[in-house]
Design brief:
Order of helices and strands: HHH
Low-confidence stretches: none
Structural class: mainly alpha
Radius of gyration: 18 Å
Mean pLDDT: 86
Strand content: under 5%
């Protein structure tokens, strides 16, 4: 029984770690699409996980498109 619990715990831990790293990748990608520093937001995503991803989604666009009329 102890071995089964250890295997289940390590399986869940592996998936949780993978999900945390994916939050970092997605935060970096979304930030880069919005004209922000993708690598910086990747690091924030690694540190704060889903909270950083939500913060990145809420960022305004940094790309300014000027149309001279």
């Amino acid at each position: 029984m102890g071995t089964l619990m250890y295997m289940f715990g390590s399986f869940v831990s592996m998936w949780a770690l993978a999900a945390w790293v994916m939050c970092g990748f997605f935060a970096g990608h979304v930030a880069a699409e919005k004209g922000r520093c993708g690598f910086c937001w990747f690091l924030w995503g690694l540190a704060f996980g889903p909270m950083a991803l939500l913060a990145t989604v809420g960022l305004p666009d940094n790309k300014t498109q000027r149309h001279d009329e």
